[in-house]
Amino acid sequence: MSVHSEIKKVTTETLRKMKFDKEKITMLTAYDFTTAKMVDAGGIDAVLIGDSAANVMAGFETTLPITLDQMIYHAQSVVRGTNRALVVADLPFGTYQSNPEKALESAVRMMKEGGAHAVKIEGGKEISKSIKKIINAGIPVMGHLGLTPQSIYKFGTYKVRAKDEAEAEKLIADAQILEELGCFAIVLEKIPADLAKKVSESISIPTIGIGAGPDCDGQVLVYHDMVGMNQGFSPKFLRRYLDLYTEITGAVAQYVKDVKNVEFPNETESY
């Protein structure tokens, strides 16, 4: 029997056990109550309140503009709609990089006000003091290596990271540092599949891949991309399970037509 079918509430320890038992971990983003409720009911193991809310919910070009207050609002909404999955929330840009004290303050607010079960932050050795400060306070931390969207202006591109030997070696070293610091899992974004496999085998904590091949311990996608609501984003790693953009716009068009033609509401839909 799988770990997935045995548990009633997913915790950080559950994810570690799933890696040990070689059961793949599933993760999707959610930013609101209704979506969280559906994703949770579908059996997802972990829900990520990603700072990608800046893109898909607010229409910004990057994840940088979203604030901690806004992320806390999204977290509150998602937590109310989640019964089983582990809820992880991103700490947004500027809330943890500058100093460990600010990082801890941000993480405490996300847990206390947002109700999240854990926080996710981007980076390796450079932010080790902030990670240590947060973990020492009893707050679970999920790391994030590879393509880190909060550093997009530094990279200058969304292309695959760690293709050269030096960056690949640093990523492996950073993953080991994150494990030593006490992170319970690491997201690996848009890196070569063979490197992701190597990292996953070199550490005892789970890796969650997005554009990092099949050998990570789990996978994560942005919900709006996965169900086809976001039409302008088609990376190689994305599999669309629905085409909701077409379905929804079609339904709206039919509603407009029915109202214009006085076909809605009809007698059975009237009091």
From TrEMBL:
Cofactor(s) required for function per UniProt: Mg(2+)
Enzyme Commission designation: 2.1.2.11
GO molecular function: 3-methyl-2-oxobutanoate hydroxymethyltransferase activity; magnesium ion binding; methyltransferase activity
UniProt cofactor note: Binds 1 Mg(2+) ion per subunit.
Assigned keywords, A-Z: Cytoplasm, Magnesium, Metal-binding, Methyltransferase, Pantothenate biosynthesis, Transferase
Keyword DNA-binding: no
Recorded metabolic or biological pathway in which this protein acts: Cofactor biosynthesis; (R)-pantothenate biosynthesis; (R)-pantoate from 3-methyl-2-oxobutanoate: step 1/2
GO biological process: methylation; pantothenate biosynthetic process
Domain of life per record: Bacteria
Location(s) in or outside the cell: Cytoplasm
SUPFAM superfamilies for the chain: Phosphoenolpyruvate/pyruvate domain
CDD domains: KPHMT-like (cd06557)
Binding site for 3-methyl-2-oxobutanoate: D51, S52, D90, K120
Binding positions for Mg(2+) per the UniProt entry: D51, D90, E122
An annotated GO cellular component: cytoplasm
Reaction it catalyzes: (6R)-5,10-methylene-5,6,7,8-tetrahydrofolate + 3-methyl-2-oxobutanoate + H2O = 2-dehydropantoate + (6S)-5,6,7,8-tetrahydrofolate
Active site per database record: E189 (proton acceptor)
Family assignment from sequence similarity: Belongs to the PanB family.
Complex and partners: Homodecamer; pentamer of dimers.
Cited function: Catalyzes the reversible reaction in which hydroxymethyl group from 5,10-methylenetetrahydrofolate is transferred onto alpha-ketoisovalerate to form ketopantoate.
Protein name, as recorded: 3-methyl-2-oxobutanoate hydroxymethyltransferase
Gene: panB
